[in-house]
Design goal:
Chain lengths: 115, 115
């Protein structure tokens, strides 16, 4: 079964600085997707960024980028120029491209942005 | 932008009582999901639903759980006889299709507290 591990329950970053959130996963599949979701307090989960396993190029979305290391099964999220609105719980998730029906989530990393 | 909505945001119930959690998926979506997150643990898949029937369910989704799409807009999760360990955040999600680029959109969650 697929597992997703986020080893950092909490992280903090100074406003305008850069922070990296870690995620590792385990799968025997070769075709899959990886995601980072952001969940602000009492609000819904929002897709931040997505990576397709067959693409070598790391995904980027404005200030958010990933470091996808397929061989190492590592998928970290880098947030540049951190803003107060980035404060949230961040979940790493995996979805098979073959079965594709369900997500496997990590336990989340709570990010605090310090003014 | 269309959103998945869930009601109530917080539900408190006594052990042994039935509870119904409600979700309104995005209107043109065809696939519906429930996930739960026990405090401090991973978000876990419960069930997926398509064409008025369950397409996949996890081990967690036992006989005390049921899902229904009673009309064209709502998608409900019923827990027949709640237990203390059912206390969790329950997330609904919906998806347009099964293709590569059809992602799940999550609702804000319902916090269920069983006393």
């Amino acid at each position: 079964a697929q597992t997703v591990t986020q080893s950092q329950p909490e992280m903090s970053v100074q406003e305008a600085e850069t922070v990296t959130l870690s995620c590792t996963y385990d799968t025997s599949e070769s075709d899959y997707y990886l995601f980072w979701y952001k969940q602000p307090p009492s609000r819904q989960m929002i897709l931040v960024i997505r990576q397709e396993a067959y693409k070598q190029q790391n995904a980027t979305e404005n200030r958010f980028s990933v470091n996808f290391q397929k061989a190492a099964k590592s998928f970290s999220l880098k947030i540049s120029d951190s803003q107060l609105g980035d404060a949230a719980m961040y979940f790493c998730a995996y979805r098979s491209a073959i079965t594709g029906n369900q997500f496997y989530f990590g336990t989340g990393t709570s990010l605090t942005v310090i003014p | 932008e269309p959103e998945v909505t869930q009601t109530p945001s917080h539900q408190v119930t006594q052990m042994g009582q039935e509870v119904i959690l409600r979700c309104v998926p995005i209107s043109n979506h065809l696939y519906f999901y429930w996930y739960r997150q026990i405090l401090g643990q991973k978000v876990e898949f419960l069930v997926s639903f398509y064409n008025n029937e369950i397409s996949e369910k996890s081990e967690i989704f036992d006989d005390q759980f049921s899902v229904e799409r009673p009309d064209g807009s709502n998608f409900t999760l019923k827990i027949r006889s709640t237990k203390l360990e059912d206390s969790a955040m329950y997330f609904c999600a919906s998806r347009f299709g099964q293709g590569r680029y059809n992602e799940q959109y999550f609702g804000p969650g319902t916090r269920l507290t069983v006393t």
